[in-house]
Amino acid sequence: MKIEFIGKGIDISDEIKSYVEHKFSTFERHLKEVGEGEVEVIVTFTVEKHRQRHRVDIDVYLKTPGGGALHAWEESNDIYMSLEFALEDIERQLHRLKERRLEQRKEIAREKEKEKSLSQESPTTPLDLVVEEKLPVDKPLNVEEALYVLQDEGRFFLPFVNAETGQINIVYRKKSGKYGLISP
Fold first, then answer.
1. Domain boundaries 143-182, corresponding CATH code
2. Is residue 129 packed enough to be buried (19+ CB in 10 Å), middle (13-18) or exposed (0-12)?
3. How far apart are CA 135 and CA 114, in angstroms?
4. CATH superfamily of 2-120
């Protein structure tokens, strides 16, 4: 992990540097679970002399396979308070990022497991996909009766046994509102 300190209007003491380095060493566990790779941290301290305000900006650049950048800043009258709040914010962001990455890994593992279980199942044939059903109307009908049944039941098509020919016919509703008849 590379930590760079930038001071704008302030000299950064060794005490502050060691504190930041110690804090980021405790973040190592989050960073390891986010992914393997290089991490670059830039901590910028800015002081506004006329208002006695101390601003701390922390940028974390993750050069991991998933990549990413985190940013936090805080401004107050005390440089240590600003630093502490900014570090807490970075820790929260790292924790959220770690949780998201873990959830993504779990999702990928679930998908792989699902694909594996599907590939291990016996291959289905087209006949396994066919479900046999009986004709909706048991008795033979003529075409006119079949049209009444089609309209009453609100169907788009109706297979039936034609009373005149004894063969299976299909009456269907066309998009134009008219009806069609399919017979062998």
1. 3.30.505.50
2. exposed
3. 37
4. Ribosome hibernation promotion factor-like (3.30.160.100)
Token pair for 161:
């046994």
At 87, phi and psi to the nearest 5? -65, -40
| Domain boundaries of the chain, sorted by first residue | 2-120, 143-182
User: If you ran DSSP here, which 8-state letter would residue 2 be given?
Assistant: E
Give the other-Cβ count within 10 Å of 143's Cβ: 15
Residue by residue, pLDDT tens for the chain (184 residues) are 888 999 998 899 999 999 999 888 888 777 776 666 688 888 988 888 777 889 999 999 888 777 788 999 999 998 899 999 999 999 999 889 888 888 988 999 999 988 888 777 655 667 777 777 776 777 888 888 888 888 888 788 888 888 888 888 999 988 888 889 998 8
Q: Which two tokens stand for residue 171?
A: 């009456």
CA separation for the pair 116, 108 (Å, rounded): 12
